[in-house]
Amino acid sequence: MKTPALALLLLLSPALVLAQQEVDRASTSPTPSGNNQLERVSVTRQQTDTDLRRREPVAKQLYGREELDKYGDTQLSDVLKRLPGINVSGGQLRMRGLGGAYTQILVNGEPAPPGFSLDNLNPAQVERLEVTKAPTADQSAQAIAGTLNIILKDAPRVVQKDLRLGVAYASEKPVINAGFTYGDRALGGVGFVIPISVYHWNFVNETDSERLRDGGLTRLSSSGWDRAHGRGFNVSPRLNWKLGDDETLTVQGFFVQNRFRNEGENTTQELFFDPVKSIRPVSVLDTTRNRGTFSANRVNVQYNNRFGEDRRIELRAGTGSGGADFNFNFFGRNAAGVPVIERITTGDNRNRNTTLSGKYSQYAGEAHTVTVGSEIERRTRDEVRSTIERDPVTLVAKDLLPGVEGQPFNATITRTAFYGQDEWEINKQWSAYFGVRHEQIKTVSEGVGSEFNSTSKVTTPLLHLNFKPDPKGRDMVRASLTRSYKAADVQQLIARPTINTDYPATSLDANQPGGPRVAVENTQSAPDRVGNPNLKPELATGLDIAWESYLPAGGMVSVGVFHRRITGLVRNSLVKENSVFWAEKARWVARPINLSKATTQGLELEVKGRAGELFPSLFEPTTALSLRASLNLYRSTVNDIVGPNNRLEGQQPWQFNFGADYRMKSLPISMGFSAQIAPKFDVQQTNLQSQETLAARSLDAFAMMQVSKQDNVRVSVNGLFQPKQGSYVTYTGLPDFALNERKPVAWWALNWEHKF
């Protein structure tokens, strides 16, 4: 692979050539005759996201409307994957290469609703994104990798009426999306905004897999396709009421609902097999059908009041509900077309949520701002799910896990927190932020196989320092010493088993169709999974240091390092248990446990700005070309797992993002691209199992034409040049392996926007 600098030069070259052509054309154009006198032009530059970032008391990256609108995305995940140090994998947001559970997602400063997906939110409904890598006291410290705070659209200062219509295509047939935003200021200090979004999706991916199992005695090769399609809508109305000069009331709603359908076919060839382990014949043609719904509804009320010049109070209350249901059908036939297996899985869950919080701030002297606050959140979840297996001969259905399947279970999570913080302006060069937060999470669950009571308490001290070498300059050094944590989720705590369907506890005997079921023993490459109610939170002590240089024309250069020391790391153990309540024979079981500790550290480089500011010898200051690039290097070690490659789960060694945006002078056209590259890497997951993740790369591009003052048309593509994605799992001391690959498809879109 070429070096990142060479790759950047090659991919930027078309934009650079076009920009230089525009500069040459401008320099050779004749000047108007009869008036050679230079006129003084006064230019007032509007505050950019970079300007706002520089003024933040703690290290924080801000992204506003320019970044959200640039590519005409209809899914917030597409915006996020282009940001420095962030990638989206399997619908999960990853920061610093760490899994989704290490990254906290907030909506208007509060935890996102259960089941929330970034794909359910249109960027047009978002005011800005706030990304912090180190926690603060006024937000939950469940953010070892960092926090994404999604600020929903605020009421505008003037009337706003925007209509967006679009058509997109990935495979088979095009889909439509639409959005409308209406905002205004009414009499009596009332302002409101109503953003509505309707969206569809349709993707088809080709899949390939190969497995060697049963100690190398069975080899299977599969190929097929899967299709995901559906539709949904969301609306996030907001009402701002100015009750007085320093008193406001805000009501924010957030409503999401979608229907989804997934289907696929997979053809399996049995290259050779172990007749002892293969109790039932392997299906030659598998058909899957899955359909369901998801919804999330929430209303928040916020009251702010400022008492004089030195005191203010903020009170919040919120309530929400939602849930999901699904029906998954797996149907298999052998080479002769005879049905051999039918498995039906159904599930339904309902969530309810209530939050109360308040904080009080007061100036203490001329240099200190002291804040204290508290929060309480209560979440309940009721769930029912079951899997039945039908005998294709007798048509008799039997629970895959008798006595547990179909039995309801529920969980109640109560989170309370108290915190205090002090923002201290030491002098013109130094400023500091001190904070401490105590948070408690109590989880109670009831139901067959899922009864437990768990309580975790974490106290997190926090220190952030800012230093300006020159008080009047633009350079800044930021440092943070913090504690953060990751609490186990309900699914990790519930000791309710999930059976590996390749080796169900009992199965049909291929030699006696319609006969009695027989007990089956699974393998370490196909374990059952069960939770652990004794899990403790993972604790992380973190150090972050960054140098930020803000350029006069709005660009910036940043170099940062970080280190995290994690204790109580949660990983799955893989053990053969001779006695389990759900099977007559011994079973291999994967169960989460707390290990001793792990460490992760990294180097983060970022540069962005106008080409004329970054490369003054190559471009004129007026060249409308913006460049950006980021390189993130990561390293981690898990102490209780033997190396090499005993890194944290899913953390790639490096990630490189780069791109450019250009606005033509001769035509009302803007264009740009963004590329992301990550290498292939191995992770030793346990002492018995290792996983290799395939390399990833992707290119997004757009071109936008301003047709009139009110209208623009945008063409974009997401996900060009993606290679096959997937994983390759191997096992220590065994020839067994599992290779799964998926060929993703690019997403093309045409969008029209009209401002009334």
UniProtKB/TrEMBL annotation:
Biased-composition ranges for Polar residues? 26-39
Write the signal peptide boundaries.
1-19
> Keyword set for this entry?
Cell outer membrane, Membrane, Receptor, Signal, TonB box, Transmembrane, Transmembrane beta strand, Transport
InterPro entries, per the entry: Beta-barrel_TonB (IPR000531), Beta-barrel_TonB_sf (IPR036942), Plug_dom (IPR012910), Plug_dom_sf (IPR037066), TonB-dep_rcpt-like (IPR039426)
What's the protein's topology in the membrane? Answer: Multi-pass membrane protein
Primary localization class, coarse: membrane
Pinpoint the TonB-dependent receptor-like beta-barrel domain residues: 267-664
The keyword Manganese is annotated on this UniProt entry: no
- In this chain the TonB-dependent receptor plug domain maps to 55-147
As for subcellular location, the record says: Cell outer membrane
The region called Disordered is annotated at: 23-51, 508-534
Query: Does Transmembrane helix show up as a keyword for this record?
Result: no
This protein's superkingdom? Bacteria
Q: Which PANTHER family match?
A: HEMOGLOBIN AND HEMOGLOBIN-HAPTOGLOBIN-BINDING PROTEIN 1-RELATED (PTHR30069:SF29), TONB-DEPENDENT OUTER MEMBRANE RECEPTOR (PTHR30069)
Family to which the UniProt record says this protein belongs: Belongs to the TonB-dependent receptor family.
What is this protein's name? Answer: Iron complex outermembrane receptor protein
Q: What is the lineage of its organism?
A: Bacteria, Pseudomonadati, Pseudomonadota, Betaproteobacteria, Burkholderiales
